[in-house]
Structure formats: structure tokens, C-alpha cells
Model the fold of this input.
Amino acid sequence: MKTSSFTAIALCAALVVAGATSALVTNDYFFSASYTVLQFVVLATAWNILGGFTGYVNFGSAAFFALGAYSSIVLDKLFEAPIALSIATGTAVAALVGVGMGYLTLRLRGAFFAIATLALAVVLQTLVVNWDYVGGSRGAYIIRPNEIAIIGPYIQYLFLLMLALVVIALTIARGIERSQLGYGFATIRDDELAAEASGVPTLRLKLIATTISGALMGMAGAPFPYYIGYLQPSSAFGLEYAVNSIAMPMIGGTTSWVGPLIGAVLLGSLQQIATVTISSAVNVLIVGLLLVAFVIIAPNGIIGLVQSWTRGRAK
Done:
């Protein structure tokens, strides 16, 4: 059996187990912590489509996440839209901003592109802080039900919803990796000038990458106001989203769709354990230490380490 097929089967089994667990576990904190980990899986997978597959490092993850979150706030204030509509709208808004960002910044490369994406996050946060309709710097509330019929507590519903979004994000990433689109992304990552000289439509492919990546980040952020109940700019544009969305794929491995999943589950779980046992203030420290360790020991991430070990055994 091929490694990719085995991994896909293992992933499906894990998701089935996670869904079954939701019917057996009654501790709400388990679902709250699991929701956060799954949210990071979607964010890391989204970042990896542009940063890992295509090689363009995006420091503006928090901006797209916040676009999804504030889309939910706007729709809730307009007509108390259902969460499914909020997710669809947040995904579409983030995708459109991804296209716009691509047209404005994708002619830049390397550090210049990274700085431009960071500037996008700063500009959007400034606009939100001064937009009274969504609460401005004060923030805004979303009143959510305590329970959902059949499912039970609302946090369990959000957990299952985010689990479904994880399946969508991983399915898209896996489909891209082995497709002609994915091979086009890889040529840009490996040598963009050579790809252009060979006739690869690099700008079009990069625009597709920014659109898909931004859309998935917005999708991850749309349920966030329903999870937290109160949204303010400092929480929507939090540093942990920009840092984790980069660190998790790099720790797991950026050249495969499995890497962000492994990195997000590993790092996200460690952060949740640290939050309970020590303090949430050490989360960024954990990210920094692990990132430095993996850059030194395994620059290609866990996936690269496993592949090197497998090749060594085969020889």
C-alpha cells in the first residue's frame, strides 16, 4: 500500500474516532481545547498552500482569519444569520481579499512580499478599530444558544463543525498536492525564474494560491465569534494566529499536506496542555523553542525526518 494511501486511511480513521468521541465525552473543556487545535489545523493547512507549496511566506494570516470572524459579526448584526451562512460569507470575503492582495503584492518576492502581507494585517486592524458598526476597539458580542437539539451543548456542535472544516481543508490540500496545479506551485517554489522561462503562468498560479489560502483562513475564522462569544480586534488579529500558522507547517513539513496536520496537532496540543498546567503566556515561548529546535535538527520538518529515515532503511 502506498504511503499516501495509508496516510489518508489513517486520517479518515482518526476523524471517525474524533466524531465518535464527541458522543462519549461529556467534559466541555475537551471540546473547547479540541476546537482550538482543529482551528489551527485549518489555518496551518491554509498557510501551507501559499507558503509551503508555492514558497511565498505570508505574515498576514491573522488578517484573513479576522476577515472571516468579522464577516460573522456583520451578518449577525444585520439579521442574525445562521453560522453556515457566516462561514460561507467569511470564506468568500477572505478569498476576494486574497485575490486583491495577490494583484498588489505578488510581483514582490522574498522578504518584500512577507512585509507587504504584514502591512495588510496592520491596515485591516486599523480599519476595524475605527469601524463602530462592528464594535471598534470595544469589540462586539454574539449571543449563541446554550444547546443544539440532538447534539447537546453548543461547544460540541462547534467542535463537530470545525472537524468538518478540517476535512474540507485537508481534502483541498491533498487534491492540490498531486494535481497539475500542485506541480505548478512546486515549480514556482523551486525556481520561479526557470518556471517563467519554461512558460509556466506563474502570476496566475500565485493568484490561485493566495485565493485558496485566504479563503481557507477566512473559513477558519468565521466560527470564532460563536466560539468565544465576544470579539475584539486584539483577539481577532492575535499574534498567535500569525505565529502558529507559520510554525506548525514548518514543524510538520511544508512540502506535504500531512505536515501542517501533524504540526498543528502536536504544537496545538502542547499549547493547550501548557495553558492548563502553566499559563497561556508560555505558548509563544513553546512555539519559538520548537521552531528553533526543528530548524537545527530537522529543517524539512517531521515529514522530512521520517522520509530520510525511511530512505536510510531502504538502502
Remarks:
- The mean pLDDT is 82.
- The two ends are 19 Å apart (CA to CA).
- The first strand starts at residue 140 and ends at 141.
- The chain is about 75% helix and 5% strand.
